[in-house]
Amino acid sequence: MNRRFYLLPLLFILLWAGEGEGDASSDTEIIKKLLGKGYDWRVRPPGINLTIPGTHGAVIVTVNMLIRSISKIDDVNMEYSVQLTFREEWVDGRLAYGLPGDDTPPFLILTAGQQIWMPDSFFQNEKQAHKHDIDKPNVLIRIHRDGLILYSVRISMVLSCPMHLQYYPMDVQTCLIDLASYAYTTNDIEYQWKKDKPVQLKNGLHSSLPSFQLNNVYTDLCTSKTNTGTYSCLRTILELRRQFSYYLLQLYIPSTMLVIVSWVSFWLDRGAVPARVTLGVTTLLTMTTQASGINAKLPPVSYTKAIDVWIGACLTFIFGALLEFAWVTYISSRSFYKRKKICSSRNSLLVETRQALIIPNTVVANFTEQPTDEVEMGLTDAPDVWVRHQNNGKTVTEVNGLLNHTNDGSGELIIIDSKHKNRRYVLWNNFKNLRLVRWARRRLDVDDNAKRADLISRVMFPTLFLIFNFIYWTKYSQYHVPAAI
C-alpha cells in the first residue's frame, strides 16, 4: 500500500498547526522550522499504519546497499573485508513540510550537527568498521516534503565469515552481512528489503577478487528472538567460489611431477645406491616443504581437507618408492651373499648359474641332451632331478632338494621325468602355460627377485596413482554449497 497515502492526514494536521507563522522561503528556514519547534530526535517517530492507535505501529525501515569492493578474504582468521554504500529509508511525519505539487523544494539535505531520529542499526557479524571522512564525511541525510528520510553512508567493515574447508581448495564459501536493530524490537522497528534491487554490485566486482569468484548474491531474513525480545534482521548472502587455477599451477601439477620423478628410481640400476637414495630423499623433502607452505595458510581445523588427502597421498607414493628401493637393495644383497656362500662350500651338491649346472665330484649320467626350448619357455614340465655323489665314504642322494644317505659309492646325476602329478599341480601348470602368464614371466625374469620388484613397481605405482586420481577428482569436484546458518 502506498506509504504516502497514510501521510496525507498527518500533513494536513502539521500544515494547519503551522499557519500564521509565514511560508518558508529557503531551505535553511524550513529546516530551522522543522527542527526548532519542539522536535525531539531522541524519540522515535510514529508508524505509518493509522489503523493502529497510539504509535501507529512500528517504523518501517527499507534497506538497500551497494557493494563496492570485497577484499582480504582471510582463511586463517575466517573473515573478509567489504566496502559498501549503506542506505536506509523511513518516514518521520514530524519532518513533513509540504504537499505534492506545491512550491516547496522536493527534498532538503541536512548538514553535520543537525540531528534527527535514526534507526540504531548495527551489523551483527562485524569485527571492525569505520566511516569514510575524506575529504568530507561520506554521509547523506535527505528529507523529502512528505517526511520520507533517506540516510546513506559509505563504510568499510571487517566481517566474520565461518568457513567450511572440507573441500579446500575446490570449496564454495557463503559469507554473510547481517543487519539488525540493537535496542528496538519488532514492535518499534521492522526492517524490509527494498523491492527493486535490494543489493547492487559495482561493475566488475564478480571477477575483481584475487582468489575468489563472486557467484551469486541474494537476500534473506534473519529475525531472531532473545531474552529481551524479538529483533528484526536482514541478511545478505555472498556466494564465493575459490579460484582453482592458482592451486592447480602451484600445488597439484608440481606435486604430481614430484611423484613421477620419484618413479625414475625404478629405471635406475639397483647398484646406483647414491643416485636412488638422493632422488628419493630429495623428492620427499620437497613434498614435505610444499605441504608445510600450504598448511601455513590454513587454520588448524579438526577435520580432513581435500588438500590434506592429496598431499598425504603424494607423500605416501614418494615414501613408497623410497621403501621399494630399500627392499630391492635388501633382497639383492641377500641373494648375492647366498650365492657366494654356495660357491664357497666345498661339499656343495649343486651350483646353478645361467650357463650350466655344475655338479662337483659327480659323474653325470643320462644328461646327454640339452634342455629343450619348450622346457625353458615353460611349455612343458621340467623333469625331476636326482643327484648322487660321494660324501665321506657314504653316498648322498638328493631328490629335488631331499637328502638320502646310502652306502653306495657310485656317483651320478639322473634326470627322470615326473609321472605322478596331483590336481593342484596340474592346475598350476595350466595357469603357467597361459600366453599372458608366459609373457609376464619372461618379462619379470623370475630368477632375479630384485629386478622383478623394480619391474612390478614400474607398472603398479602409476596404476595406483591413476586410480587414486580418478577417485579423488570424482569425489571432490562435486561440491555442494553449505546452507547459510
From TrEMBL:
Primary subcellular site in the record, as a coarse category: membrane
Keyword line: Cell membrane, Ion channel, Ion transport, Membrane, Signal, Transmembrane, Transmembrane helix, Transport
Molecular function GO terms recorded: extracellular ligand-gated monoatomic ion channel activity; transmembrane signaling receptor activity
Localization annotation: Cell membrane; Membrane
Pfam families: Neur_chan_LBD (PF02931), Neur_chan_memb (PF02932)
Species this protein is from: Caenorhabditis briggsae
Membrane-protein topology: Multi-pass membrane protein
Signal sequence, start to end: 1-22
Family of the protein in this entry: Belongs to the ligand-gated ion channel (TC 1.A.9) family.
Protein name: Ig-like domain-containing protein
Transmembrane segments: 244-268, 309-331, 455-473
Cellular-component GO terms for this entry: plasma membrane
Entry-linked InterPro entries: GABAA/Glycine_rcpt (IPR006028), GluCl_TM (IPR044721), Ig-like_dom (IPR007110), Neur_chan_lig-bd (IPR006202), Neur_chan_lig-bd_sf (IPR036734), Neur_channel (IPR006201), Neuro-gated_channel_TM_sf (IPR036719), Neuro_actylchol_rec (IPR038050)
Residues in Ig-like domain copies: 137-233
Taxonomic superkingdom: Eukaryota
